[in-house]
Specification:
The protein is of the alpha/beta class. The chain has three domains: 168 residues, Rossmann fold (3-Layer(aba) Sandwich), CATH 3.40.50; 115 residues, 3-Layer(aba) Sandwich (Rossmann fold), CATH 3.40.50; 85 residues, 3-Layer(aba) Sandwich (Rossmann fold). 42% of the residues lie in helices and 15% in strands. A five-stranded parallel β-sheet has the order 8-7-9-11-10, with helices on both faces. The protein binds iron/sulfur cluster.
Length: 401
């Protein structure tokens, strides 16, 4: 099965969110059949995988990996569940993983244990003979899903009609469709990661007086503030309203137009949680991801990408106390790997990235065994034109990092 560039719009259901958000409960590996009882929208999978125990799945995944040898590279995003990440050849953030895969031409198959936009980026950067596979095709990113490519093209047309062509430069966060990255590439814009966002915006402001930023309003706003842009010069584009719910004058007066998107995981963190952490541990250092709201970022001691968070905690002296505002699977892993420090998540209600969580080991076993049998399941493939322009925008990002 080959999936073209269109992103799976499979939203997180209320039921699914509730199933994962539990106070003080460890994250347990359940047979897939139990998880499917609440996750009714997950991709269907052959029956034989539903009832396998975690040990049986581990053995089958390990067996298939061995058989595939160097023809396979398995990538695990930092937010991935432990029962998946333990099999990853590389773990990291989305862009670093895509680069790793591209640097391994002997690997015909890139199995990306992440979400859909990450697999697309890997396909854009990889060689023609490499095939990118997403074990569960419904593993989308709720933030990326808030910016369908067609809606962004619609905004682009409306801005050109209202403000004139060439007046605004598009900048997109890595967490977006290949189609949006291509729009940026075609129109003089750029892609950024959470760590390169300030440099990318600086680069863009050297070329235009106004920027439109997709799809995360919080990363856009936090970065704009870092660059000294006043809040009054930032407007939010609501894709459900004509002209984004803004007047032509508001658009003309703005310097930064923010797409109304957000991360459902990072917007769970609050200033009250930071205050509670400080009360409990006076020496605590609070570090959060810049996808958190402006109020949370300003109340924290530090903010930065997942790589920055990992590095800060790993390199801190023994006895340090860290309250972390990012995805729980990563925070738990950091706590386990740093037993000489106190590391905890700001939000006591455990809530992993539920779309990332859809990569259950049963899906990994299914696609790997498919490859052993010569069958490519869940290939994510970007068309040539989109690939070309998305790559242009990604290459610009490399110049400003
Ligand atoms: S943590 Fe948020 S931004 Fe990251 S993949 Fe999950 S939903 Fe998307």
């Amino acid at each position: 099965m080959t999936i073209q560039t269109r992103q799976p719009t499979v939203p997180i259901t209320e039921m699914e969110r509730d199933a994962f958000c539990r106070t003080d409960e460890p994250l347990v590996v359940k047979p897939l059949v139990e998880e499917l009882q609440v996750n009714v929208r997950w991709q269907r999978i052959p029956r034989e995988y539903l009832h396998l125990t975690s040990q049986e799945l581990d053995e089958r995944i390990a067996g298939a990996r061995q058989e595939l040898g160097k023809r396979l590279v398995l990538l695990g995003h930092h937010y991935q569940r432990d029962d998946i990440i333990k099999f990853a050849d590389y773990r990291g953030d989305s862009y670093m993983l895509a680069q790793r895969a591209a640097a391994q031409p002997e690997a015909d198959h890139i199995v990306f244990c992440g979400v859909h936009f990450m697999a697309e980026t890997a396909d854009v950067l990889s060689a023609d003979h490499q095939q990118v596979i997403l074990p569960n095709i419904t593993a989308g990113c709720s933030m990326a899903d808030m910016a369908p490519t067609e809606d962004v093209y619609d905004l682009w047309d409306q801005l050109a009609e209202t403000l004139g062509e060439g007046e605004t430069l598009p900048v997109t966060y890595m967490n977006s469709t290949a189609g949006i990255k291509a729009l940026c590439g075609k129109n003089g814009g750029i892609v950024c990661t959470s760590s390169s966002a300030p440099a990318a915006l600086r680069w863009a402001f050297e070329r235009a007086s106004r920027i439109v930023f997709f799809p995360d309003q919080h990363l856009g706003r936090n970065t704009g503030l870092k660059l000294g842009i006043p809040l009054e010069q930032m407007v939010v584009w609501n894709p459900f309203k004509p002209l984004g719910g803004l007047t032509p004058q508001q658009l003309r007066d703005s310097r930064l137009i923010l797409w109304q998107g957000h991360c459902s995981v990072h917007t769970r963190f609050t200033v009250a949680q930071i205050q509670a952490a400080r009360q409990r541990y006076p020496s605590v250092r609070v570090v959060v991801h810049p996808e958190c709201t402006m109020e949370v970022v300003q109340a924290a001691d530090d903010n930065g990408s997942t790589e920055h968070i990992v590095r800060s905690i790993t390199q801190s002296p023994p006895g340090s106390v860290w309250a972390v505002g990012t995805e729980i699977s990563l925070v738990k892993r950091l706590a386990d790997q740093n037993p000489d420090k106190t590391v905890f998540c700001l939000d006591s209600m455990i809530c992993p990235c539920s779309t990332m969580y859809r990569i259950h080991p049963a899906y990994l076993a299914w696609v790997l065994e498919g490859l052993v049998q010569g069958q490519v399941i869940n290939r994510v493939s970007v068309d040539e034109e989109t690939k070309h322009w998305a790559k242009v925008a990604l290459e610009r990002m490399l110049q400003v990092r």
